[in-house]
Structure formats: C-alpha cells, structure tokens
Design brief:
By secondary structure, the protein is mainly alpha-helical. It has helices at residues 2-16, 24-32, 35-55, 63-88, 91-113, 118-145, 149-181, 188-204.
Length: 229
C-alpha cells in the first residue's frame, strides 16, 4: 500500500510540475511560439491547394503539383533552417525577422496567388516555406533551452500540442470563412495575426544563457522525463 501511494503521489507530482509557478511563463511561451508555424503550415501546405483549385477563379493550373513540389523542397529547407540557426546562433533575431516577413507577405502573397499564374503561385509558396523553416530552425532549439531537463519533455509536449491543435486545426476554417465573406487576400491575415501572437510569446520569453542547461547543472530525480536533446 505504501508503495502504491508513493507511486500515485509521484504521478500527480509529475503532472503538476509543468504548471508550477516558476515554470508557467516558459509554458506560456511554449504555447505561443508554435502558433505561427502551425497556422502557416496548415494554410500554405494544406489549405492552399483547395484555394487554388476550387476557390480562385480562374483556378491555378497544376495546383496540387505545385503544393507537392514545395512540400518536397521543404524537407531540404528543414535541414537548412536548422543549419542556419546553428551557424548564426541568435535565435531571437532569426525568429523576429521571419515573423515580421511572414506578417507582411501573408496577405500580399495570397492576393498574388489568387491571380491564377502557376509560376507566381510556386514562387510565393517557396518564399513562404523558406521563411517558415527559418522560424522553425530557430524556434526548436530556443524552446528546448527554455526548460530545465526535469520538466522539458512534459512542458514542450503541452505547449506545442496546444498550439498545433488550436492554431493549426482552426486556421483552414478561419481562412475559408474569410475568403467566403471578403476577398482572396484576407486568408493571409490569419498568418499575420498568428505572427503577432508568436512575436508576443517571443517578447515575454525570459533571456537564456548562452549554453543550454546540462545534467550536471540540475540532477534528475528517478521519475522525471527523459532529456530532449
């Protein structure tokens, strides 16, 4: 009985620890930063195919082929974004530049894509992808460094999945609602709004040390998370 009670206490403690007072600020940041890539991905790489094929008049030729090619190129861009973040090192600057650019070009590029030219559509989506993976390449190590190892995995899982499910899940719905009631460029403002939301998260994020916290800086109790490295 004593062992069972001890295990239940440890389980409750493990679930409550990410919401501890000294971790809530970082947890909020972890929920705000992924809002931009979640919304951008689901609009640019998922919803935009339907937009070009069925909403825009005249339709953009080869809409699904354009989306497929950009998705394949994004595999390489993901590595390039990570390499750029490792080389440059200033995660905040990279994320700020990416978010500001996405906020500006979102409505503009949706308007240009809506004109129906496949070359323009491909170029705009390629730029979207580049900016998105500049953000992702810097965001992921930034978020990892935001938490001590003992709560890192749980905190990131909560914040990231909340952003992905809410912002990513509802972005196509918001984009469709906007384009049905306004003009073709208005879905781009969804990206603008979430860029501002993620910039807010970046602005409230605590300053980080140059070096990430290691195991020797903070001992891990037996029941804690595995390190996310």
């Amino acid at each position: 009985k004593e062992e069972t009670q001890k295990e239940e206490t440890q389980s409750r403690s493990a679930l409550a620890e990410p919401f501890a007072l000294d971790n809530r600020r970082n947890l909020l940041v972890a929920a705000l930063l992924p809002c931009l890539p979640a919304a951008t991905y689901y609009i640019v790489f998922i919803w935009l195919a339907v937009y070009m094929e069925t909403i825009v008049s005249p339709p953009v030729p080869h809409a699904f082929m354009i989306i497929t090619v950009v998705n394949v190129l994004s595999i390489l861009l993901a590595f390039a974004g990570g390499a750029l973040a490792d080389y440059y090192g200033n995660y905040r600057a990279l994320m700020t530049i990416s978010a500001v650019c996405l906020a500006i070009v979102g409505p503009l590029f949706l308007h240009l894509i809506g004109n129906g030219h496949p070359g323009v559509a491909f170029a705009c989506q390629a730029v979207f992808a580049i900016l998105l993976y500049v953000w992702n390449g810097a965001m992921l190590p930034f978020m990892i460094k935001s938490f001590p190892p003992r709560v890192r995995l749980r905190s990131l899982s909560i914040g990231y999945n909340l952003a992905l499910s809410i912002c990513g899940g509802f972005s196509p719905f918001a984009a469709t609602l906007l384009v049905d009631n306004f003009d073709n460029s208005t879905p781009g403002y969804v990206i603008t709004v979430f860029a501002l939301v993620s910039l807010l998260g970046l602005s409230i994020a605590p300053n980080q040390n140059d070096e990430p916290e290691t195991d020797t800086q903070q001992a891990l109790p037996p029941s804690t998370d595995l390190e996310l490295t």
